[in-house]
Design goal:
- It is a single chain.
- Helices cover 63% and strands 0% of the residues.
- The chain has helices spanning 35-66, 71-98, 114-119, 121-132, 139-163.
- The model has no long low-confidence stretch (mean pLDDT 86).
Length: 164
Amino acid sequence: MSEQPPTPAPKPAGTPEPEPIRWFGTSWLNRDNGYWLRRVLVPVGALATAAAAAFVLRLGVEGVALSDSGGFLNGLLTVAVAICSVMAALRTWKVLAEGKDQLTGWMTEDRSLGAVWIIGGIGALLAYFVRSLTEAPGEAAKRASYDRAVAQHTKRQAARKRKR
């Protein structure tokens, strides 16, 4: 006979629910259900994907270099890739640290910057990797939001009890 894990007690109606995080679901809240295994696999996956993306980007840059278009164009391409990577890394870091609703200016969702985010994908993946070494990426923003929602809910419940 296998031992079943205890089922969680049902939450009262209106109690805030945590938002899921990609790859982690809601396991970040109590750090259960394979949370620590995911915390190891996510950075490894991000780093492996960044390496694969760097390889593909290198093939593209070498293709331009083989076209004998000149050193200036090769240098310009290298600078453009570096700038796109830095921009994507900064945007990803801000999204993971503060949440998507905190994006302002050039970091916002703008279709005209889609190519920048694609070219700078390596920077975004490296930011994701570094952030995932300290927490589930986006956990700090989700936890802060969830804690605020729980505090507001508790405050409302206390106010309702005082009225009765």
